[in-house]
Specification:
Layout lengths: L7 H11 L16 H19 L3 H6 L3 E2 L4 E2 L2 H12 L18 H35 L2 H12 L3 E6 L15 E4 L5 E6 L3 E2 L8 E8 L12 E6 L1 E3 L5 E4 L2 E7 L9 E6 L12 E5 L6 H37 L22 H33 L3 H37 L10 H8 L9 H15 L3 H20 L1 H24 L5 H5 L2 H23 L6 H17 L3 H10 L3 H4 L6
Parallel strand pairs: 3-7
Antiparallel strand pairs: 1-2, 4-5, 5-12, 5-13, 6-12, 7-8, 8-13, 9-10, 11-12
Length: about 600
């Protein structure tokens, strides 16, 4: 029986028929793996996600975390699911073998993660944060810090967080005021409060490892004066044993619209509730060099942005499959030409408008899955390609695609889950079905790890204009290669290639023209329109790629791929035209709007 969480057949097609992940096993880092080991892992992920994550999906929403002023309590099923995840080495899938990791390709790791995001994003989020925390420390921390903190997180015994935001600063991290005071023993005492910290406190693990942005005395103003510190819930001795409670407490928890199983906290560091060593302040360890904390944190944030895209994809995919099952089983109405009320009702999937909504969802979720896996393959190439030029080119393209992989699945995954509700009609608007919870869970994705608007500024301001367009040109070159290949096939791929080529050329012309608009405010006024146009252009390209691979396929699966590609080119790709029109003229309607006029 097919899963209602994710399509194993789609994963197989994308990983093997399209991306050829087995070829990665020829590289030294992945030499211990093969297609058989990849497939076995993904089967295990499907089993654990289905048996241990999906069953408490609804319960973790209805019985959200509680805080009694001292402890955060979660339903026990969350901890049990994460224990099962740890038993399969889930925390360490992509980590180095030297610290107990499996050294799996990121492409396979993303495929594995998508099973869990589809099953229960509120539970798997604890693991994602821990993985990213450990990866940052492994890349940038001292040997002492790595020895103390990394392996317990990769074993799932300790969990990790990223403690960046503060209530007054939000996404403006240059305005954080948490401070760190050097101590004679080389540690630091941290004082301050944070807000919106996912996984910030619970009783599931022996320890919680916070990565905290703070300022040293006399640090430069703004983002150039931010340093990064490891601040554990319990102190950790040099031999790895746990000591006394650190001065980290929770002031309260935030009550969210969705993804409720992931507790969201307001932690306070150094308020005097505990005095480790008899001194005030939370004990912290500096990561890397002073004042480079934001640069290090971006290591975690970029990984988190891919994880957000993966979360959005898995959430929308599950909602799509559940609405598809409902449409096949729910009888209602008759064919348009049928007037005899005595005729049996038909499943609602027989109605064209329902098929339209399902086809739109299919185009969104399978396009998003292709995008997240493609970016993961670029990550593998950036790290392990044998040719230096290939690594550099992959890094350029990944840089351009990172804001897109975070934002496109988030935006269109939200539209997709909304369509899932619509397919179920009134039933979808009730809590008797999962799709409304998927919609609420999905709504966080355009907000966290850099809002939709921040990703737009990053793409246009940094990844395109400040880079001189090098990354965009490298991406365009890959698109041109796909266009040439599709034209050789003829038929639908060739027609779609012509459509993509026309939009790619227009996008390039508009991008070149932005530099002539004058003031930066005018250039950046429609950055969000630029991001959204770029996202649709990229996903159209990935649908062209999928359509080419499925072109000669004889299964219903291949026919479905071709039809979804046709839908995207007929209905979605043309949507970028009005966005490009705005950009071409440097429209200032939003910029010129004044406060008083609202």
């Amino acid at each position: 029986m097919a899963s209602d969480l994710l399509s194993a057949r789609d994963l197989d097609f994308l990983l093997h028929d399209w991306l050829d992940v087995s070829a990665l096993s020829t590289r030294e880092r992945f030499a211990d793996h093969s297609r058989e080991s990849y497939d076995a892992l993904l089967e295990l992920c499907e089993q654990i996600a289905t048996d241990h994550f999906a069953p408490h999906f609804r319960k973790s929403d209805e019985q959200e975390p509680t805080f009694d002023g001292t402890k955060v309590e979660l339903i026990p099923e969350i901890g049990e699911a994460l224990r099962r995840f740890a038993e399969m080495d889930g925390f360490a899938l992509g980590a180095d073998a030297e610290v107990g990791g499996l050294q799996l390709p990121a492409t396979v790791g993303t495929a594995a993660a998508t099973w869990f995001t589809a099953a229960n994003i509120g539970t798997i989020c604890y693991a994602f944060l821990t993985q990213a925390n450990a990866a940052l420390l492994q890349a940038h921390a001292s040997e002492d810090v790595r020895q103390r903190f990394v392996r317990p997180m990769l074993e799932g015994r300790w969990f990790g967080t990223m403690a960046m935001s503060e209530a007054h600063a939000g996404s403006s991290l240059g305005d954080v005021t948490t401070r760190a005071v050097p101590q004679a023993d080389g540690t630091f005492r941290v004082f301050g409060s944070k807000m919106w910290i996912s996984g910030g406190d619970h009783e599931m693990a022996d320890n919680i490892v916070h990565l905290v942005l703070a300022r040293l005395p006399e640090a430069p103003a703004g983002s150039r004066g931010i340093s990064l510190f490891v601040v554990p819930k319990y102190l950790v001795a040099e031999d790895g044993s746990l000591g006394e409670r650190n001065d980290v407490v929770v002031a309260g928890i935030n009550h969210k619209l969705g993804s409720r199983g992931t507790v969201n906290t307001a932690p306070v560091f150094g308020d005097g509730a505990h005095t480790p060593g008899g001194l005030p302040g939370a004990v912290g360890h500096l990561v890397g060099e002073p004042h480079k904390g934001l640069r290090y944190m971006f290591h975690m944030m970029n990984a988190a942005r891919l994880a957000v895209g993966t979360a959005a994809t898995g959430t929308a995919y599950a909602a799509y499959l559940k609405s598809l099952d409902y449409a096949r089983e729910r009888p209602q109405g008759r064919a348009v030409a049928e007037s005899d009320q005595a005729t049996p009702q038909v499943p609602i999937i027989e109605h064209t408008d329902v098929r339209r909504m399902l086809l739109a969802q299919k185009a969104y979720v399978e396009g998003a899955l292709a995008l997240t896996l493609y970016c993961s393959r670029l990550l593998d190439d950036e790290r392990t390609a044998t040719d230096e030029a290939e690594r550099a080119e992959a890094s350029q393209v990944l840089g351009v695609l990172t804001p897109i992989v975070k934002s496109w699945p988030s935006q269109w995954g939200q539209e997709s889950t909304s369509l899932a509700i619509q397919v179920l009609g009134g039933a979808g608007y009730t809590r008797d079905h999962d799709v409304e919870q998927h919609w609420r869970d999905q709504r966080l994705n355009p907000i966290h790890e850099g809002t939709h608007g921040i990703q737009a500024l990053d793409l246009l301001g940094r990844k395109v204009l400040m880079d001189g367009g090098a990354g965009l040109m490298a991406l365009a070159a890959r698109m041109e290669t796909s266009i040439a290949r599709a034209r050789e096939l003829g038929g639908a791929p060739a027609r779609q290639a012509d459509q993509l080529k026309a939009q790619l050329d227009r996008f390039g012309e508009v991008t070149l023209g932005l530099g002539g608009l004058g003031e930066p405010e005018r250039i950046m006024a429609n950055a969000t329109a630029y991001l959204e146009a770029a996202g649709h252009l990229v996903v159209a390209w990935l649908w062209l790629e999928q359509g080419c691979v499925a072109h000669a396929g004889t299964e219903d699966f291949h026919a479905g791929k071709r039809q979804a590609a046709a839908y995207f080119f007929a209905t979605e790709l043309p949507k970028i035209g009005p966005a490009l029109d705005l950009l071409a003229v440097g429209d200032l309607t939003s910029y010129d709007m004044q406060d008083a006029w609202f």
